[in-house]
Amino acid sequence: MIRIKDILSFVVWCTRSSFKNSTRCQPLRSPSNPPGSSFFKGGIFRACLSLPLLKREEGEIFGKSGATIYVAKFGFRTQALLWVCVLWSAVHGSYDPVYGAELKPEKNRLEVAIAATGPLYLPVILANEAGYFSKRGVTVNLSTLSATASAQALLSGQVDIYQGGTATIHANVAGSDLIYIAASVDRSTLVLFGQKGITSFDQLRGKSVATTSVGAFGEIAIRKTARERGMEVGKDIKLLYHKGPPDALSTFLVGNADGLIVTPPQTEMARGKGFPVIIDYYEKGLKIIGPGTGVARSFAQKNPTTLKIFLMGYLDGVKRALDDPAYAKNVLAQSSKMTDQKLIDESYNEGVKVWNKDMTVDPEAIKLVLEQSTISKAAELDVKRFYDNTLIREVNRDYASKLFPGQVKW
Asked: What is the pTM of this model?
C-alpha cells in the first residue's frame, strides 16, 4: 500500500536535482535520500522552523546532527514542496514497523507467556502474528500460563516475559526479584456482576463471588471495595477462585456463585445474558496493572536490547490494532475463539479504551495492590523495588513518541 509520506519522500528525492547552490540536504542518520529510505522514517528528518529561517531571502532548511549542520538553498517551487513535507511530518509524525531493525538483540528467541486471551492481550498476539518481533530479529513463542505458575516459570527461565497482572508483585513481596518494565494496561476493565436480583455490593454479604487466580486483580478489586464498605473478604464475602475468566464465568452461569468479577470478553458475555452490573471498575477509574510486562531483574540486566525490541514490537501491535480494526478483530476472534460479531466488536472496543501508548509504570497502580495484600507489612514496602522504567523511557524517547506523536511523553 502506497502511503502519503512515501509519495512526499519521493517528491523530495525528485526535487533535489533542482536545488540551487545546494551544499547538502540529507536525513540526519542516512547518507542519501532514495525513495523508501529512512528519510521520513523514525523521525529522522527535521526542519528548523525558527525565526532565522524566515529571515533568509532564498529560504534555507537546516538539519543538525551533533556539530554538523546541513543546509539546502533552493527556489520557490522546491521550497513550497519541502514545506509541505515538513508540515506533514510535524503534524502526522512517522511510522515504520521495522524501525529498530538495526538493534542487535542479545537473544534471538523469547518465551512469552500471557495470562489469558481476549482484548487486553490482543496487541501482543497481533504483533506476533504480523511479524513485528521477527522483523527485528527476535522470534517470540507465545503461550498461556496461569498467574500462579508464572513466577516460578520466570525464575526458572522457562519463560522470559510474563504479560499478566499482579503475580509479578506478589512474587516480589515473597522475595523473588521480579519486576515490571512496562505497563501495557493499567486502567481496569473489571466488571462485577450479580445474579439477577442482586444489584448492589451490600447484597453480596454472606454470598460468593467467582473470580480468577488467588491474588489476581479481581481479588484485589473485591478486597478494596469490601473494605470501603466495612466488609471483609473471607468473613463477609467468599471468593471462588478459578484458573481463568472462562472458568469463573462458567461457575457463575450455572448458578454456583452469586457474583462474578471478570475482564473482557467474559464481561460482554455476561452483559449479553442480562446479568446486572454492580460495579464497572473502568468507570470508577481503578488503576491496576494488568497486563504488565513482568521479567526477572537479572534477565532485564542481561538482555536490555532484546526487551526494547519486544516493547517496540508490542507498540507496533497497538498501532496496528487501532489503525486496522478489521484485521485486529479477526485476530481477536481467532485467538479467543469467538464467532459472534457483536461480541467481537464489543470486546475490541473494550481493548481500545485501555491499551496504553505510553507504557511507563505508574507506582500508584502497584501501591494499590500492596495495600490490599494479605501479607503482613506488604503495604510498607518501597514501591520502587517492583518496577524499572529505564527501558520503556528509552523506547518512548526513540520510538513511541514518533509512533504516537503528541501522545507519549519522555
From this structure: 0.72
CA dist 168 and 152 (Å) reads: 10
CA dist 108 and 202 (Å) reads 52
Question: Which value, to the nearest 10 degrees, does the dihedral of the CA atoms of residues 12, 94, 128, 295 take?
Answer: 130
For cell 542479545, the residue is 106
- Is residue 307 predicted with pLDDT exceeding 80? yes
Same domain for 330 and 396?
A: yes
Amino acid at 184: S
What element of type H or E holds 61? strand 60-65
Cell numbers for 366, please give them. 502497584
> What range does the domain containing 62 cover?
4-92
Whether residue 355 is found in the same domain as residue 387: yes
Exposure letters 248-282 (e unless 16+ CB within 10 A, then b) = bbebbbeeebbbbbbbbbbbbbbbeeebeebbebb
pLDDT in tens, 181-210: 999 999 999 999 999 999 999 999 999 999
Task: Using only the alpha carbons of the chain, give its radius of gyration.
Answer: 25
> What pLDDT shows up at residue 375?
87
Last residue of a domain, one of 284, 307, 334: 284
Supply the pLDDT for residue 243. 87
251 lies in the same domain as 373 = no
CA 268 – CA 85 distance, rounded (Å)? 44
CB of 154 closer than 8 Å to CB of 296: yes
Question: Which amino acid type is present at position 77?
Answer: R
Q: What is the CATH number of the domain that holds 233?
A: 3.40.190.10
Burial class (CB in 10 A: 0-12, 13-18, 19+), 119: buried
